[in-house]
Each structure stands twice: as C-alpha cells, then as structure tokens.
Amino acid sequence: MSRLTRYLRRLLGEPVPPEQPYTGATISGTFSDVSVGERVSFGGRVFIHARAPISIGSDVMIAAGTQILTATHDPENHPMWAEGVRRPVQIGNHVWIGNSAIILPGVKIGDYAIVAAGAVVHRHVPEAAVVGGVPAHILRYRDMERLLANPFENPNYRGQPRHESFLADDAVCKEAPKNGG
Question: pLDDT tens per residue, the chain (181 residues)?
Fold first, then answer.
C-alpha cells in the first residue's frame, strides 16, 4: 500500500493495516511474535502466519512462496474449528528454505539445514540435514567440517554466484516404482 493511500485512509478514518517490516514477506498475526536475525532474505510472497512465536536465525534464505505457519486445529476435536492449536516455529542459523516450502506449526529447523523446494515440514529438521518431499524426510546430511571452515579460506569461494552449464546428459530423473513391486 502506497504512502498516499495510507494517508488518505487515515484522513477518511478508514482502517490502515500495519506496514510490513520485511521486504518480500507478509506477516499475518502479531508482528512482535516474529524474531528475525541478521542477513535474512525473503524471496517474495513469503507468508508468515504469526499466531505463536516464530524465531528465524541469522544468515537465512527463505525462497519465494514459502509459508511458515503456527496455527492449526486438533483433528480429535469435534467440530475441529471449535478450538485452535498454536505452536511456535524455530528456524536456526544458515538455513536455506527452497521455493514454496511449507513449515508447519511446532517445527524446529536446525542450523545449516536445507529444506527442498515444495517440501512440507511437519517434524523437526536436525542440524545440517537436507530434507525434501511431502511429508519432508531426510535426504542426506551436509558436511559440517566444510561448512564450518572460513568461507574466505575456502578455495571454491568466489564471493559471487558461480555460473555453470547444464547437468550431465545422463542426469535423468528416476522412474517411480511400479505399484505392487
């Protein structure tokens, strides 16, 4: 919303929604429940549903379309909408969350973790784990020794994006297993 629109709304006595404090992210709920570290980037259209505390560490990249949710319902209650459940979310330092990932209420994501694009994270992610899928599962772990080395002493660090060619021609997706075997 532009400054002019905000000004005109105030003059007319219309409600003016609070300004969003983070470029690329929209916060629904209580801004004071969201804690964000240093050098955090939001890739655009990131939705943060702050009905409970959300803590995001430093040096975190959150790609476009990601949703971080803190509210849900208890499926054992009838009707389910009668009582909401609010759980905090914690995202560690040096975490990369890929496009359109969904982080569900109550989840902790450890330092140096990577969440693949489109993953639905419903359980805790250990430090340095790479998770993906629906629901998310651990695909592998990152090499902590290499991660903790000073990047400026790393011979592969160039301080700018690396431009590479396509994957090898034999890097073809695996076929899904057939039903029944």
Answer: 567 777 787 888 877 665 666 788 888 888 888 999 998 999 989 999 999 999 999 999 999 999 999 999 888 888 877 788 899 999 999 999 999 999 999 999 999 999 999 999 999 999 999 999 999 999 999 988 887 776 655 555 556 666 677 777 777 776 767 776 5
Catalytic residue among 49, 73, 94, 163: 73
Q: Would you list the domain boundaries of the chain?
A: 21-153
For the question of residue 73 being annotated catalytic, the response is yes
Q: Domain 21-153 falls in which CATH fold?
A: UDP N-Acetylglucosamine Acyltransferase; domain 1 (2.160.10)
What is the distance between the alpha carbons of residues 140 and 134, in angstroms, rounded to a whole number?
16
Q: What is the pTM of this model?
A: 0.77
DSSP the chain: --HHHHHHHHHHT---PPPPSSTTEEEEE-GGGEEE-SS-EE-SSEEEEESS-EEE-SS-EE-TT-EEE-EEE-TTSSSGGGSEEE--EEE-SS-EE-TT-EE-TT-EE-TT-EE-TT-EE-S-B-TTEEEETTTTEEEEE--HHHHHS-GGG-TT--SSPPP--PPPTT-PPPPPPPTT-
